[in-house]
Amino acid sequence: MSEPKPAKSQVIFWVFLFFAIATAVVLISVFNIRSRHERQQAAIVEINRLRGITETQVRRPWGIPDRLWPSVDHLFVHLEKVDFNSKKVNDDDLRLLQDTDHVWKLLLHNTEITDAGVQYLKDMPQLRVLTLGNTKVSDAGLANLTGITTLIDLSLGNDKHGDAGLVHIGKITSLRMLTVGGADITDAGLAHLSKLRKLKTLRLSGAQITDAGLKQFSSLRNLHLLEISGTNITDASLTDLGSFSKLKRLALVDCPLRGPGLAELGRLKNLQSLQLTHTRIDDDGLRYLPRLSRLRSLNLSDSNINGAGLQHLSGLPELHSLTLQNTGVKNAGLEHIAKLKKLSGLILTNCPIDKAGLEKLRNAPELSYLNLNDTPIDDDAVAALAMLQKLKVLQLKNTAVTPDGIARLQEALPDCKVYTDP
C-alpha cells in the first residue's frame, strides 16, 4: 500500500511555519544589526569627543542584493581602529569599546590607563594590535592580556615593566611583534619570551640585560627584526645572534660593543639593515662588515669611528644608505664612501668635513640624499655640491652656507630640494 499523502492543510501549515520562522530570524538579525550599529555610532561620537581618532570600514556581507545594498550599507560600517595616544582618557572611557565588535587596532600610549582598564580589552574579539607604553598598567595588569588569542602586535614601550610582566607576556603565544623594556627586566625574565616562537619582530631594552640573557632566545628562529637598546651586552653575545638565519634587520643601540664580535654576524646571510649606534665600535671593528654581502643600510652614528675604517665598506656592494651622524669622520674618509657605487643616501650630520671632503663625493654616481646639517661647511662647498647632479634632497641646516650660496645651489641643481634654517 502506498503512503497516504499529507492533507493540503498540513502542507500549507508547514510552509507557513517555515516562512514565519525564517521571517523571525531575519527580523531578529536586522534588529541586532541595527542595535549594534546604533551602539557603535554612539561609541564613535563619544570617542571623538575625547579627541580619539577613529577609522571605519564598510564590510559588505555575502548575499545582499545590489538593489538593496544602498539602503542598508550604513548598517555595515565597522569601527576597526581607535587611536587614543596621548589623549586624556581613563579606565572608564574604555567601556566604550564594549559596544564595538570589530576593533582590531587600539593605541593607548601615554594615557592614564591602569590595570582596571585593561580588563575591558578581554571582551574585544578581534583585537590584534595594542600599544600600552607609558601607561599605569603594572606587571600584574598584563595578566589580562593572556586570554586575547587574536593579539599579534603588542607594544609596551621602554616602560617600567620587569620579569613579573614577562611571565604573562610569555603566555601570549599568538604574538608576532613585541616591544618591551624596563629597568627591572633581567636575564632570568627573558626566559619567558623564549616561548613566543611565532615572533618575527622583537624590540627589547633593559639595563640589567647581559650576554647571558640573549642565550634565552635560541628558540626564536623566525625573527626577521631584532632591536636591542640600553643593555649591557658585549661582543661575546654576537655569537648567539649569528645563528638567527632569517634576520633581515638588526639594531644594537647604546650597548658596550667594541667591534671584534661583528665577525659572528657574517653568518647572517639575509641581513639587509644594521644599526650600531651609541657603541664603542671604532675603525678597526669595521673590517668584519664585508661578510654581510647583502647589507643595504648601515647606521654607525655616535660611535668611535674616525674614517680610516670606511675602506672596509667597499666590500658591501649592495649598500644604499649610510649614516655617520656624530662621528669623527673627516675629509679623507669620504674618499672611501665615494667608492660605494649604489649609495643613494648619506648622513654626515655633525661630522668635521668641509669643501675638500665633499669634492671626493663627485665619484658617488647614485647619491640622491645628502644630510650635512651641523657641519662646518660654507659657501666654498657650493661648487663641490653642484657637481652632485643626481641629488634630490640636500640638508644644510645650521651650516655657514649663505642665502647667496643656496641660490647658486638651486640654480645648479634645479631638481634638488634644499633644506636650510628658517
From TrEMBL:
One BP annotation, GO: SCF-dependent proteasomal ubiquitin-dependent protein catabolic process
Source organism, top-level taxon: Bacteria
Every Disease resistance R13L4/SHOC-2-like LRR domain range: 119-350
Transmembrane segments: 12-31
Listed GO CC annotations: SCF ubiquitin ligase complex
Stored Gene3D superfamilies: Ribonuclease Inhibitor
Protein keywords: Membrane, Repeat, Transmembrane, Transmembrane helix
SMART domains to which the protein is assigned, alphabetical: LRR_CC (SM00367), LRR_RI (SM00368)
A Pfam match: LRR_14
Annotated SUPFAM superfamilies: RNI-like
Record protein name field: Leucine Rich repeats (2 copies)
Organism lineage: Bacteria, Pseudomonadati, Planctomycetota, Planctomycetia, Planctomycetales
